[in-house]
Amino acid sequence: AGIIGAVGNNRLGVAGVTWAIKLLVCRFIWNDGSGYVSDAMNCIKLCKQEGALITSNSWGGIGYSSFLEREIASSQSAGQLFVVASGNSGVNLDDVPLYPTSYKSDNMISVASSGKEDFVSSFSNIGLGTVHMLAPGEGIFSTFMDGAYKLMWGTSMACPMVAG
Fold first, then answer.
1. Burial class (CB in 10 A: 0-12, 13-18, 19+), 86
2. According to the model, what pLDDT value does residue 103 have?
3. Residues in domain Peptidase S8/S53 (predicted)?
4. Distance between CA atoms of residues 102 and 47, nearest Å
């Protein structure tokens, strides 16, 4: 949320990519990193119902689910863009598909991480047939829990750069 919409020019913390934005936060992954595909689908449905035009999805690395694939594809009919992190396993997704980033829906943008030299980050998943673009994902300073700020790395930082 901070990478996308932290208010700037206020002498506090950081500035997001865009300052005048409404955010809808739908959490389905718990502190231990676990979550359910059905809850992810409910979040996608909620975003559709609320009229969200873009979703920023910094989650994944799961196996194939035809139910999730259909839910993402159905969000296209609502005019929604599904921006998703490619993941941080350092694999070629064309050879080793991971989801949701490996689904082939027309409303998806899969985002890999780049560093300050504008090369693909060593940890970032890639794939010419799967990943659509690179965005900064190394050493990103942003908002964090309980009003804190933190320096972070990963495609989960690159994804909201594009969504914002």
1. buried
2. 97
3. 1-164
4. 21
CATH number belonging to domain 1-163: 3.40.50.200
How many whole angstroms from its chain centre is CA 67?
19
Tokens found for residue 151: 């320096």
Is 6 exposed, middle or buried, given 0-12, 13-18 or 19+ CB atoms closer than 10 A?
buried
Closest of 63, 68, 6 to residue 43, by C-alpha: 68
- Tell me the whole-structure pTM to 2 decimals: 0.94
Helix and strand numbers (H, E) in the chain are 4, 6
**Single-letter amino acid, residue 41:** M
d(CA 111, CA 123): 13
The list of the chain residues with pLDDT below 70 reads none
